[in-house]
Structures are given as structure tokens and as C-alpha cells.
């Protein structure tokens, strides 16, 4: 069986999850990997057949998406060309982790596309949602990568086809300690803003992994480091707590490691506000932005925050097997019909 595994390359969570999903898919056939997007910092330990520009949201430096830079870097004609030319019809199964090129290519050719993502779980009616609605943000999330079937991951199994997070093997194998520091990953804020605010808590030692600086430096009690996967996860494992954006994989991994968690959703980013609602339901602390008006909440989190205890068993093999058993026969039937037509039956 030929499988196309298409992965979103904006942010690091999709590629981190793919590290564990790919080997399970490979048990069932030949897997070609497609990655689109330009905002990831995680290396991929398997071959990539298709690297595409895709459609990425560019992180800003003040807590949100850089709308102007996102618009400037959108290459619409290239996106449409990639959608038109991607040979999805050559595959028996298309597995999609919130990746727009393969999703729209399948839709254009009326072919099935199976979502294995966090985003489809966010869109489930039973998943937590922010108190203030965002119809436009929800619409973008729904239309970004259309699929025909969905298997989602969330902080909790809120519905039948929603599963607990894929915790990558390298996280599961970490030795968990508490050296007293706090690990920080806030890609939507620049280093100057982070240092300005975190330095107001001199009794805390902050290890910040920066998307905006390649050279490490220390400013008082704030250590700025360049992004490095191994260094980051080891810092998390040895930390007292994690301060991060309201993505999915980062908070989920912090919960799995038994850390206290403080999340800040990106401004005007509907999915992250949904994630923040979900994380809060699990016991995480949530603030709207990195600002002095939330200093009391941060201080309370530092002094009184509690580690979050979760049970996230390794069920990646089980999920992939369920997808193959459910959807591979449909592809086989489609192929039989195609073969019959080609020989004139």
C-alpha cells in the first residue's frame, strides 16, 4: 500500500508528533512524506519526498500573528499550482496533519483525505471552547485543510474519535527532576519583551528558548537560548514549571512530565484560545497576554501553582491500526473499480 503522510510545517507540534506516527504508518506500506510551511524548527528523522511552501502564519513579536508579514509571504499562485500538481491519486491512503496542499488536492479530485491532527479535535462540538466566540477564526480553522474523516488529539478524550496526546518517545524516556528553574517558549514574543516582564520576578530563574535570537545571552535572572530540541526537552524535564504559548504539544508534554503549566494564547488566534480553555480545564493557569496587569497571576502561579497529573498512555500504534483497518478497505475497493474500468469490464 502507498501512503502519503502530509504534515503541517508551521510550528513544531505537528512534526514532533510525526516522529512517532510515521514509524507506525510504515508498518502498513510505503510512506511518502509531504511537509508544507516555513515556521518549524524541528528536524525530521525520516526522508521527505515533497517540501512545499504551503500557507504559513508568521509569528509576531508582541503576542500574536504578524498579519502584514503573513500576507507578504503568502504565495497564492504557488499554493494553487502545488494543489493542482500534487499527485494524490497515486496513493492508496492520504493521511493529513492539518496540511492544506494535500487536503485541497484531495478535495479537488474528490478523493478521501484522513485527518490525524489536533485541529480536528478542537473543532469537535464536545471540545472546550473560549467564552468569547470567534466565528471568523473558527471558519478559517474549518476551511484551512478540509478532510473526509477525522481522528483528533486533545488534552482529554472528549469524544469517540478524540484521543489523548501522542507523547513522543524521547519525552517518555526522560528522567524527570526539579532543578527549580522555569522553561519558557513564547515564539510570538520577542526577547526584549520577554526579558522586560520576566525580570520582574527576580526570585525565579527563567530558561527561555527563543525563536528570534540565534545567540544565547543572560539578562539578570533570564537566560535566553537558541531553539534546540534536545536542550529544550531536557530543560522541561528538569524544570519546576513551563510557561508557553497555548499550542497543543508543548502544554501536553509539560502535563505528561507532571509540571505546573502557565499558558498564554496568541492574540486573535482562535485555535490557541480553544487550547487555553482545554488546558485550563486540566488545571493549567491561563493569562491573556504577557503584561504587567497579569503579574499577580504569574506570581501566584510561581508561589502556589500545582503540578498537573495526567495519564497519557502510548496508544499511537492502536490509533494508526484503527485508521488502517477502517479506511484501507475503502481504498482497495476504489482501486478494484478503477482497474475494472481500465480493462473494460
Protein topology:
Elements: E1 2-8, H1 13-25, E2 30-36, E3 50-52, H2 67-73, H3 76-85, E4 93-97, H4 100-108, E5 114-117, H5 119-122, H6 135-144, E6 149-153, E7 162-163, H7 169-172, E8 182-185, H8 191-198, E9 206-210, E10 217-219, E11 222-226, H9 229-237, E12 241-245, H10 249-256, E13 260-264, H11 270-282, E14 285-286, H12 295-304, H13 316-342
Parallel strand pairs: 1-2, 1-4, 2-3, 4-5, 5-6, 6-7, 8-9, 8-12, 9-11, 12-13, 13-14
Antiparallel strand pairs: 10-11
Helix pairs in contact: 1-13, 3-4
Overall residue-averaged pLDDT value? 89
Main sheet record:
7 strands, parallel
Structure class: alpha/beta
Low-confidence stretches: none
Describe this structure in words.
- The structure is a single chain.
- This protein is an alpha/beta fold and 345 residues long.
- The protein is built from 13 helices and 14 strands.
- The protein has helices at residues 13-25, 67-73, 76-85, 100-108, 119-122, 135-144, 169-172, 191-198, 229-237, 249-256, 270-282, 295-304, 316-342, and strands at 2-8, 30-36, 50-52, 93-97, 114-117, 149-153, 162-163, 182-185, 206-210, 217-219, 222-226, 241-245, 260-264, 285-286.
- It has a 7-stranded parallel β-sheet, sandwiched between helices.
- β12 (241-245), α10 and β13 form a beta-alpha-beta unit.
- α1 crosses α13 (316-342) and α3 (76-85) crosses α4.
- The longest helix is centred in the last third of the chain and has 27 residues, at 316-342.
- It is globular.
- The chain starts with a strand and ends with a helix.
- The model has no long low-confidence stretch (mean pLDDT 89).
Amino acid at each position: 500500500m502507498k501512503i502519503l503522510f502530509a504534515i503541517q510545517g508551521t510550528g513544531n507540534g505537528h512534526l514532533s508528533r510525526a516522529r512517532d506516527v510515521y514509524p507506525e504508518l510504515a508498518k502498513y506500506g510505503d510512506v511518502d512524506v509531504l511537509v508544507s510551511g516555513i515556521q518549524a524548527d524541528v528536524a525530521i528523522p525520516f526522508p521527505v519526498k515533497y517540501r512545499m511552501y504551503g500557507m504559513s502564519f508568521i509569528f509576531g513579536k508582541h503576542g500574536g500573528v504578524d498579519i502584514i508579514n503573513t500576507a507578504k509571504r503568502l504565495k497564492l499562485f504557488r499554493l494553487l499550482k502545488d494543489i493542482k500538481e500534487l499527485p494524490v491519486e497515486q496513493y492508496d491512503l492520504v493521511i493529513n496533519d492539518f496540511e492544506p496542499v494535500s487536503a485541497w488536492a484531495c478535495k479537488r479530485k474528490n478523493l478521501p483525505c484522513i485527518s490525524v491532527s489536533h485541529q480536528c479535535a478542537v473543532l469537535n462540538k464536545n471540545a472546550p471552547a473560549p467564552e468569547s466566540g470567534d466565528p471568523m477564526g473558527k471558519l478559517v480553522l474549518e476551511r484551512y485543510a478540509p478532510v473526509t474523516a477525522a481522528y483528533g488529539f486533545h488534552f482529554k478524550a472528549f469524544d469517540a474519535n478524540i484521543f489523548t496526546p501522542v507523547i513522543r518517545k524521547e519525552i517518555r524516556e526522560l528522567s524527570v527532576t526539579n532543578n527549580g528553574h522555569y522553561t519558557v517558549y513564547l515564539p510570538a514574543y520577542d526577547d526584549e519583551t520577554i526579558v522586560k516582564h520576566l525580570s520582574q520576578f527576580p526570585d525565579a530563574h527563567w530558561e527561555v528558548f527563543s525563536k528570534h535570537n540565534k545567540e544565547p545571552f543572560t539578562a539578570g535572572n533570564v537566560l535566553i537560548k537558541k531553539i534546540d530540541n534536545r536542550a529544550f526537552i531536557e530543560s522541561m524535564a528538569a524544570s519546576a514549571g513551563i510557561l508557553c504559548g497555548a499550542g497543543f504539544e508543548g502544554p501536553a508534554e509539560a502535563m505528561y512530565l507532571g509540571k505546573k503549566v502557565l499558558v498564554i494564547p496568541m492574540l486573535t488566534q482562535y485555535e490557541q484560545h480553544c487550547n487555553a480553555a482545554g488546558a485550563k480545564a486540566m488545571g493549567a493557569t491561563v493569562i491573556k497576554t504577557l503584561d504587567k496587569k497579569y503579574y499577580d497571576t504569574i506570581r501566584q502561579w510561581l508561589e502556589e501553582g500545582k503540578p498537573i497529573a495526567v495519564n497519557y498512555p502510548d496508544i499511537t500504534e492502536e490509533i494508526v491500526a484503527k485508521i488502517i483497518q477502517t479506511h484501507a478497505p475503502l481504498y482497495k475497493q476504489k482501486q478494484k473499480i478503477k482497474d475494472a474500468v481500465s480493462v473494460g469490464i
